[in-house]
Amino acid sequence: MSDQELMQSWWQLRMQMGRLMQARHHKGQGTGLRGRDRIIGLVGYAGTSLSQRELADRVHLKPGSLTEALNGLEADGYVQRTRDPFDRRILRVQLTAKGQTRAKEIKAEHDQFVAQLFAQITPADKAVLQRILQQMIENIKTYDAQIRDAKGDDHA
Q1: pLDDT > 60? residue 147
Q2: CB-based contacts of 48: which residues, under 8 Å, 6+ apart?
Q3: Burial class of residue 75, CB neighbours in 10 A (0-12, 13-18, 19+)
Q4: 85, CA 20 to 30 Å: which among 6, 20, 77, 131?
């Protein structure tokens, strides 16, 4: 199998996952991987409060976009923001009781999705896949660094 064929299979998997998440999201059956559920799920997964900067990095949102999303989540009673007691400049995001309940639902939905995704894949094949994915991540980091060096861009 060629590298191009592997990339085509990877792209097909990615697109099918995206369509599934989109369809479930529109039916109110979110997988915990999109939009508001992604924010709730990540704060729940952290198990503690996160600074808005940490959360923005994890959900790959610009701070302004995250603030807008958090405003809605806070208004709907899923999260609350408080000042960090050690550094008053930092706003920390934590789940309310309602948010914790939703985070548990998201985790259950996500666990079901992951179980289905990896059904009938042996532990040995999972180990190989993990090794390959880690190597691909390292290859991308190296490639990105080479491009940045060639352009003289020192911003990560």
Answers
A1: yes
A2: 94
A3: exposed
A4: 77
Nearest-CA neighbor of 34 among 22, 47, 45?
Answer: 22
β-pairing, 79-83 with 50-51? Answer: unpaired
Report the residue count for the chain: 156
Tens-place pLDDT, residues 92-141: 999 999 999 999 999 998 899 889 999 999 999 999 999 999 999 999 99
Q: Which two tokens stand for residue 138?
A: 């390292």
Confidence of residue 5 (pLDDT cuts 50, 70, 90): very high
Residue 27 has pLDDT above 70, yes or no: no
